[in-house]
Amino acid sequence: MKKVNKLQNQNRVNWRTFLKDVFICSLEAYGGPEAHYGVFTDQMVVKKKYITEEELIELIALCGILPGPSSTQTLVAIGYKMGGPILAFLTMLVWALPVLTLMTLLSFLYQFLERMNLSFEGLRYIGPMAVGFINVAAYTIGRKVVKDKTTLALLLFGAITTYFIREPWIFPLVLIIGGIVSIITSKKEELWNRVKLNPPWRYLIAFAVFAIGGMALASISQNKIIHLFESFYRYGYLVIGGGQVVVPLMYSELVEVNQFMTNQEFLTGYGLVQGLPGPMFSFSAYAGGMASRGGSVLHQIMGAIAGGIGIFLPGILLIYFVYPVWENLKQITGIKVSLKGITAVAGGLIITAALILMQKNGFVIDNFIVMIITTALLFTKKVPAPLIVVLVLIAGFII
Fold this sequence. Notes:
The protein has helices at 2-11, 15-28, 33-47, 53-65, 70-106, 109-115, 126-145, 149-164, 170-185, 201-220, 224-238, 243-257, 263-273, 283-291, 297-322, 326-329, 333-361, 365-380, 385-398. It contains 19 helices and no strands. It is mostly helical and 399 residues long. The termini are far apart. The radius of gyration is 21 Å and the shape is globular. The protein has 2 domains: 2-95; 100-398, no CATH class.
């Protein structure tokens, strides 16, 4: 009976109309996962009634458990529910491709300014503005994840550990420790209750092949595109909690370890993506393009493509694997319990990212003022994020 209802549900949905609604979501979705869910509720639940509000909340919970871009996975899961894996893939393209294209073009911004003999100083306030966005994300997520003494301790553990150890391997380690501590300290019984699952293993196998194959190729190849794909794919499966959480991982490896770009260039891209609609993981296209500079235009575009595909692919493969068995999977208590500790540690990572990026920007008076004003405007919610970006750009070129 469930299979019949599912097929009827898929057949009655006009794919073109559904994808048009997805595109509307992509144009209205500013400000990260929390804001995106409001857009999804308005467009997918209230206006078009593709799913119920209860179903949307369940999908948000599912994607909160999984690594990857949570709001993207939520929308892709809705596409899967409406039309299966093909419509889910088209949903992903319509949702993410426009902003990925824009961020790829913005990776050429510094070359453009240099060719036009325009000063890079005009971008100097984008960095402090980006720190303001991270400050708000750190406060919002920190307030959400700290629920007791254990989660507060895990948040501080994540912040302090990653502040003093700036190596790429430390980030997955502290996240795993957070999940383990949460399980150990849990008072709930039967955490690993058995449920009957029949998952599509091909997607998990593909996920593992890309992960293991990417690391193997990167270890024997000097090709930068391969190395970038492996790095961004790794970011995609290590991050739980959306675009803000991936920032410290990317910053540590791309700026501090490999020095693919400067602190200012990194923050410029992160600041600009705040003014664009769509998933914040699209920052990966900018970062991949910037890391591939020094060769041809095609090589830089390939770097942006490697970054964009790499960071989105693991999350999409995981949602393809998990969603068909979600009704049974969500009954496993241990999965939900571990998420409590993982998200607490992730909150600590964002706090550290905000602190380090403030230090890198320099505590000069005008940078500090821009950061404070940006943070205040975001808290008041009276000025849209895109307008803040535009105003900061104008101020940089005028002052």
